[in-house]
Amino acid sequence: MIMNPGMLLFGLVDSGIAFFLVYSIAKAKFGGNEKMLARIIGASLGTIVFAVYFGIIVWFNTVPNAASQAAKNLVYAAPIVLTLLMGALVLLSQPPKQQKEAEENLPEEPEAETEEAEQS
């Protein structure tokens, strides 16, 4: 069986997404950009994941196998969904931007004075 070129391109892109997801997580886990060992481990694990994932996608599309279409779709969508979820998690976990400093610099409102005048 010959693999569809579009599916081959999708496999490369999807495997690349899986690589960057694993690379980013491994690099963050082992020390971030400051440590060379973290970058080496991230690149190594990412390369392994890329090769295995690309191999699975090629196997799904060339060899007659017993995997159901639902299982194939799950494997195809997993890196994309995980990357979107991790991106959302990163955006939501960022600290608020200088909102406290802006509130502290505001002058106090004369609400207390108007409440006292109304009570009298």
Poorly predicted ranges (pLDDT <50, ≥5 residues)? none
Radius of gyration: 26 Å
Q: State the helicity in percent bands.
A: over 70%
- State the distance separating the first and last CA atoms: 91 Å
- Overall pLDDT score: 81
Description:
With 120 residues, the protein is mainly alpha-helical. Helix 1 runs antiparallel to helix 2 and helix 1 packs across helix 3. It is elongated and about 85 Å long.
Output the keywords:
elongated, mainly alpha, 120 residues
Q: How would you briefly describe this protein structure?
A:
By secondary structure, the protein is mainly alpha-helical. 77% of the residues lie in helices and 0% in strands.
Blueprint of the fold:
Layout: H1 5-29, H2 36-62, H3 69-92, H4 99-105, H5 111-119
Helix pairs in contact: 1-2, 1-3
